[in-house]
Amino acid sequence: MLIAGFPAGAFQTNCYVVAPAAGAECVIVDPGQDATEGVEELLREHRLKPVAVLLTHGHLDHVWSVAPVCGARDVPAWIHPEDRHLLSDPAAGWSDTSASLFGGITLSEPDDVRELTDGAVLKLAGLELVVDHTPGHTRGSVSFRLPDDDIMFSGDLLFAGSIGRSDLPGGDYPTILRSLATKCLPLPDDTVVLPGHGPQTTIGRERATNPYLKEAAPHAGPTRGI
User: Which residues form the signal peptide (predicted)?
Assistant: First the structure.
């Protein structure tokens, strides 16, 4: 397994390339602000051929470069339908105050956009990635898991020592707690978490030390649909 990444742009959003090995096909996860050059460097370094871009959610700092990255390689982008509108209207994902900072930014959908569903298994680049719908940060937030390798790309659901904010449009604190309870807490302790920002961690470490996972634990029982 080859996983390489870098923090992109002013938001320091982690962008990843994932492949079975060097010299193989790969997927790209969350190409954020000014990520195009970094992605191309990783593709050259590891001799990779991308077949898809996977988006954990539609916030600007995660999708900024998706159209140019997809266009340069003629590959589709995958996103949950609840966040698809953010690809062409990034200001809709921010508060009125924050949105004014991005007033001059124009984004567009890639030519080929495909929609993610909870529980889907994506067979791409020789990988099998399980899609978990994990709303709460945005309505269409998802995580991607490589269950055979105990690896989770958590986007802005779970960070080392923290979780994603829930005070932006589409966010909801009780909902993100349910996502943590139903999608993170059941995973093995040695599951490696590769988050949208900051350093990697493990489910076991977060279970033991992250106050938000402790708060989420009572929600781990049966829940109503969200």
Answer: none
